[in-house]
Amino acid sequence: MQYVVIGNGIIAMSSAFRLLSKISANDTIILIGPNERVGSATLAAAAMLNSFAEIHSNSFKSDADIFHFELSHLATRLWPEFEKELIDAAGENLPGACAKCQIHSGGCFEKGTYILNNTVADELDDRNFAAIVQACEDFNEQYEFVEPQSIPNYAPSTDSRANKAILIHNEGWLNPRIVLEKLDAILSNHAQITVKDAKVTKLEQTDGKISSVLLDTNERIEGDVFLVANGAPSEELLSDSDLGLQIQPIFYGVGVSLEIKSPGFGLTKCIRTPNRGGACGVYTAPYFQGPQLANDHVLIGASNFLSPKPFYHGRVISIAHLLESATKEINANFADAQLVRVNVGWRPTSQDVYPLLGGTSIANLFVTTGTKRDGFHLAPVISQNIAALMCGEDVDPRLSIFNPEREPIRDIAREDAIEMGVESLISQHYQHGYRPSGIRMDRQYREYIRRDLEELHDSVGAVDWGIHPELINMYRRGFAK
Ligand SMILES: Cc1cc2nc3c(=O)[nH]c(=O)nc-3n(C[C@H](O)[C@H](O)[C@H](O)COP(=O)(O)OP(=O)(O)OC[C@H]3O[C@@H](n4cnc5c(N)ncnc54)[C@H](O)[C@@H]3O)c2cc1C
Question: Which CATH code of 1.20.1730.10, 3.30.930.10, 3.30.9.10, 3.30.460.40 fits the domain covering 107-174+251-350?
Answer without folding.
Answer: 3.30.9.10
